[in-house]
Amino acid sequence: MRALPVGQEALLIEVDSAEEAGALHTALLRRRAEGTLTVREIVPAARTVLLDGLPDPARWIPELTALEGEPPAPSTCSPVELPVRYDGPDLAAVAAHWGVSEREVVRIHAGTEFTVAFCGFAPGFGYLTGLPARYDVPRRATPRTAVPPGAVALAGPYTGVYPRTSPGGWQLIGATDAVLWDHTRDPAALLSPGTRVRFVPVEGP
């Protein structure tokens, strides 16, 4: 773990994996809720956590780096369930890459509880972890110019759901009608870092 001051009121903590970043993010949120850490924003990424609005950030380095290895507290919130039609155009390619049938891809994916590791790319887009490393899949050699909203996709170790139409190179295995981002909703994002997620197979359309 390495902590780097960023400007006058921010601290960037670097770790070795997404799992470590997620555990650190959870520990920091817990300390903020307990009142032992005063910070404006805590932003996780693939292997970093940024604390913004932290007065005298260098002073916090010894205490925050001591959190390394602290196990995350179990979540008490129920998982968000997303209904999915597993009929994506890349389902067969993912099945071939995994060496299983398309039905087995659905069983494995829907049988996994995911966690939102971090958000990015587009408002409401969460990078979900949970699948074992043997199910990592490569991005498409040629990205699509337009992926529809609600597309459930895989890339590397992550699962994601496109919140709006956008270009994308992830492997599309299904679709959901859930609204991932709604600026009239509070909070606007359905998924946020730390949220547990389950995908529930449904018949289409």
From TrEMBL:
Domain named Carboxyltransferase: residues: 1-191
Keywords: ATP-binding, Hydrolase, Nucleotide-binding
Record-linked SMART domains: AHS1 (SM00796)
Keyword match tRNA processing: no
Pfam families with a match to the protein in the record: CT_C_D
Domain of life assignment: Bacteria
Keyword flag Glycoprotein: no
One Gene Ontology MF term: ATP binding
InterPro entries named among the record's database cross-references: CT_C_D, Cyclophilin-like_dom_sf, PxpB
The name this protein goes by in its record: 5-oxoprolinase subunit PxpB
Organism, as annotated: Streptomyces griseofuscus
Gene that specifies this protein: pxpB
